[in-house]
């Protein structure tokens, strides 16, 4: 392959999902704009603190993905994955009542069929709240929301940054916060959950109040 052709081919690869590094990680966010992502649910909101100006619910500021939390919706990466490790870092601003999450192996969100198509019903949502002082439960941070509680707490309170890692291999799911495993679950052992999908989309949730995300990347474990 001649050098000009090789360079062109490399650029073509970089334009798809993102070029993989030597360890197989794919960068899902380039730090500049939301290429490859689809906004589902509220796309805009009126900022009461700024003369009711209309602003995007999802945007990029200072190299970070930001949601204003203007109602239930999602920022979905437009490519499906089956077995993978997903890495996401997030922080919540100082406001109380912040609610967000990470959807895995989910489908496209349809506001007209909100219950059936949101991750916490269709597949799983890893819940994210400012609740570092709460006892683990099926609705606390790190849970597979409404289904499985984490075994321990390892996330930091707002406005500190937290790193989440979610590994999905077949029916087995592992969730860790800041390097500590907080949930290990095999859905094949639960009759109510064993039919949950083993592939689908990943997404970030908008729900209430402002949240920022960075270093969003995924390592596919199957071709």
Textual characterization of the structure:
Helix content is 9%, strand content 41%. A hairpin with a 5-residue loop joins strand 3 and strand 4 (53-56). It has 223 residues and is mainly β. It has three helices and 15 strands. The radius of gyration is 18 Å and the shape is globular. Mean pLDDT is 89; it is low at 1-17. It has one domain: Jelly Rolls (Sandwich), CATH 2.60.120.560. It has helices at 3-15, 114-117, 119-122; strands spanning 26-27, 37-40, 44-47, 53-56, 58-61, 64-67, 70-77, 84-92, 99-106, 124-129, 162-169, 172-177, 180-186, 201-208, 211-220. Strands 1, 5, 6, 8, 11, 12, 13 and 15 form an eight-stranded antiparallel beta sheet that branches. The chain has a five-stranded antiparallel beta sheet with strand order 2-7-14-9-10. It has a two-stranded antiparallel ribbon with strand order 3-4.
Quick structural summary:
The protein is mainly beta and 223 residues long. Helix content is 9%, strand content 41%.
Provide tags for this entry.
3 helices, 9% helix, Jelly Rolls, disordered N terminus
Q: If classified by CATH, what would the architecture be?
A: Sandwich
Strand tally: 15
Assembly context of the chains = single chain
Taking pLDDT < 50 over at least 5 consecutive residues as the criterion, the unreliable ranges are: 1-17
Sketch the topology as an H/E string, one letter per element.
Answer: HEEEEEEEEEHHEEEEEE
What is the overall pLDDT average? 89
Indicate the radius of gyration in whole angstroms. Answer: 18 Å
What is the terminal separation in angstroms? 25 Å
Helix content: under 10%
- CATH class, named Mainly Beta
